[in-house]
Each structure stands twice: as C-alpha cells, then as structure tokens.
Amino acid sequence: MTIAQQQRAITAPVVDAFTQPCAAVSCRICTAANINGLYKAEVIHKRGSWRNLQAVELATLEWVDWFNHRRLFGPIGNIPPAEAEAAYYRQLAGSAMGA
Fold first, then answer.
1. Of 6, 20, 24, 38, which has the highest C-beta tally within 10 A?
2. What string of DSSP letters covers 41-67?
3. Which residues are within 8 A (CB) of 80 and not within 5 positions of it... i.e. 6 or more apart?
4. What percentage of the chain has pLDDT greater than the value 70?
5. Residue 95's pLDDT is what?
6. Helix, strand, coil proportions of the chain in percent (round to 5)?
7. 69-91 b/e with 16+ CB inside 10 Å = b?
8. Is 79 in a helix, a strand, or coil?
9. What single-letter DSSP state applies at residue 2?
10. What is the pLDDT of residues 70-96, one digit of tens each?
11. Terminal alpha carbon distance of the chain
12. By the 8 A CB rule, do 25 and 33 touch?
C-alpha cells in the first residue's frame, strides 16, 4: 500500500465524520469505548489482581506503547500506527520542501 493510499485510509473516515457533525461525535465515542474495552480485556482483567496503582500505571504505559508502536493495523497496510504517522509527516515535509 502506498503512502497516499495509507493517508486516504486514515483520513477518509475522519473527513466523512467531520462533514456530518453528529456522526463525528458518535464515531469518536464509539472508538474510545472500543479501545477502552480492548485495554480492559487485554490488560486489566487478563492479569488479575494488582499489587498497587503503580503496577497498573506501568502496565498501561506498556500497553499504550505496544498499541501505537508494535501493533499491526490492517486498514493502513499492516503497519504500526506510529509508523504510518511518521510516513505521513515525512511526506508532508517533502511536499513543503518541493513547494
């Protein structure tokens, strides 16, 4: 998948959501609820009881790092979201230099 295709895959739902204000709010709420549920299932409930708040915070930081930097995300070409974001900003910087 080319960078342009990745950008369209990422931005098309966002553009569509912002052209329909009610859908934008609903989409963001649903996305947040889904990610929160995924986090709870994979981190909080799977690991059982927690020693203290610091253990939960550390596990949360580790999960967020995995979610952004190592998780392969299909809609953007089976690459991590952070990689897609970096490619997007590299392309923007290249476009600005060429303009």
1. 6
2. IIIITTT-S-S-HHHHHHHHHHHHHHH
3. 68, 69, 70, 71, 72, 73
4. 73
5. 83
6. 80, 0, 20
7. eeeebeebbebbbebbeebbeee
8. strand
9. -
10. 999 999 999 999 999 999 999 999 887
11. 25
12. no
> How far is Cα 40 from Cα 37, in angstroms, rounded to an integer?
5
- Cβ atoms 10, 83 nearer than 8 A: no
Mean pLDDT, residues 18-36 taken together: 73
Contact yes or no for 18/24 (Cβ under 8 A) = yes
Residue 7 CB contacts under 8 Å (≥ 6 apart), including other chains: 88, 91
Q: What average pLDDT does this structure show over 13-39?
A: 70
Q: How does the average pLDDT of the chain come out, rounded?
A: 82
Q: What distances in angstroms separate CA 5 from CA 58, 71, 73, one per listed residue?
A: 35, 19, 14
Backbone torsion region of residue 53, taken as left when φ is above 0, otherwise alpha when ψ lies between -120 and 50, otherwise beta: alpha
Q: Maximum Cα–Cα distance for the chain, whole Å?
A: 56
